[in-house]
Amino acid sequence: MAPTLPQFNPARLRSYVFRIPLFTRIILLLIILFWILEFQTAWDIAQWGALVPLEVNLGTMYRLNTYPLIHLGFLHALLNTVALAPLLERFEADHGTLLTAAMFVGPLSTLPAAAYLLIERGLLRGNTAVMGASVWVFVLLGAEGIKAFRANPYFAIGTSRIPTWTTPLLALVFVTALVPNTSFLGHLCSVGIGYIYGLGYLKILAPPEKILRWIEGKLNLLGRLPHYVSIDQKTYGRYGVLPTTNAPSVDDVNEGSYIGSTERLGP
Description:
14 helices
């Protein structure tokens, strides 16, 4: 019997889109919004929000947060969005919306940027502007690489045993080789921060769960915000659903680029 190709299922796509948690939705919408704004000529979005080493000062620190949201061209925005969505929604589903927002608005954006600026401006004396959501893609791949290594330290290719933590680096080499004008340095900084996060060394920068629970309860975020994911996964479930006598178990629920002047991060 001849093999058949998997068919596109609109119902499954709609189901997946409906399950995307709140912060991931906001990030994807912002990426789309900034891409749409590129069509107007009154305001140069890329020049305003890119991570340009010589343009970063006390008055332009916002660039440390805006550069992952801005892309040059439809294809760049599309590929980065497709790569980011499943990784980010999984992170948010596992950690909660508030913690995800705090980490991605904070250290998981600013630390890769700071590492890039330190090396590009401080050591290489360059001024290559970078932007794109692939910074988050490679941060998350780095963190997932550490998680995979702890569960399964090696995978085999023929007779060779390769540490699973190297898979983000293999992806980095693959993207650099196939995608023109990709910033190897920017991606390398992102993977490095992902490794550090995966090893637990950035936990000190995360808001205490006690404070996050207090904020959630005080503002009733779970009741007011659709697709909100509570920090208290054990109480509210992975997607912030209040438990009932017939509620499914956690296991059941779990089954249910920078682009710059000359280089870019991501496809």
